[in-house]
Amino acid sequence: MSRTPRRLRTALVAVPAAAVLALIPSTASAYPNPGTVTGDTVVHDPTMIRTSGGRYLLYSTGGGLGYRTSTDRIAFTAGSDAFTTKPSWWSRYATEAWAPDISYHGGKYLMYYAVSTFGSNTSAIGLAGSTTGLPGSWTDYGVVYTSTSSSDYNAIDPNLFVDDNGTWWLSFGSWWTGIKMIRIDPSTGKQLSSDTTRYSLAARPTGTKAVEAPYIVKRNGFYYLFASYDTCCAGTSSTYKVKVGRATSITGPYYDQSGVAMTDNGGTPVLESHGSIIGPGGQSIMNDTDGDLIVYHYYDGNDNGTPKLGINLLSWSTGWPVAH
What we know:
Elements: H1 17-21, E1 38-39, E2 47-50, E3 56-60, E4 66-70, E5 75-79, E6 97-105, E7 108-115, E8 123-130, E9 139-147, E10 159-162, E11 168-172, E12 179-184, E13 199-202, E14 211-219, E15 222-229, E16 241-247, E17 268-271, E18 277-288, E19 291-300, E20 306-315, E21 322-323
Parallel strand pairs: 1-5
Antiparallel strand pairs: 2-3, 3-4, 4-5, 6-7, 7-8, 8-9, 10-11, 11-12, 12-13, 14-15, 15-16, 16-17, 18-19, 19-20, 20-21
């Protein structure tokens, strides 16, 4: 039975690191360790942006959307949640928000996010805006899209993509029938009334594990869809991993390097468990001054499975993203 979206859980399963290492295939040595980060780095589902002044703003799952900031992309300091008072409509779905997605368009920061309970697809995607992106400055714009217990999809894990021609798209989804996409009206940030099509981008056969947390970028004429696969939120028992496919059209079809469609369980690995780095996923992609970054969480096998922030540079020299 499809059951769980990727989400914050503080009750993590602790397994000795040696036992975990015995389960990791030898090919995992090809994956890099996260870059150095210090300070307040316990996060789930991080999204990050760099302001014009050079400050990094990071938001993540939990409460009113947790906040971290850094001036050098290494030392992170926690601050107040994005919302000091949670919007009243959240109570119809849950008491906390998940999986934010921050971007900057039209002179303001936008943040899409999900409100749901663990294992439920009675869920909603919300939207907020801010001129500074700082905690306490966000104005909530309400519900963007919803799913119910009778839906074959789950309205969580949103990601906004603005195409070269100015067209706005929102991808989202977890478990059930996989990753979906809708058109967004740039003037409202909500679904375009003249196009209510819900496109399918990635899926796995009924009864298998998750594909979720979509994030789309366009590089070298291709659209690349990153997604998280398998089990999140189980500490050192997590099997989360990041995979990618690419397409010549924003709505797909997306194929992996072997030519398998992402709607047929395809996906080329980008990050998997290796050493004490367990279950990397919940990823977002950020373009910085030194290139593209993959920003994600993982479970630290040397710290009882505590979820930590991971940041790596991506290389595109092969036509596919490779973490360094």
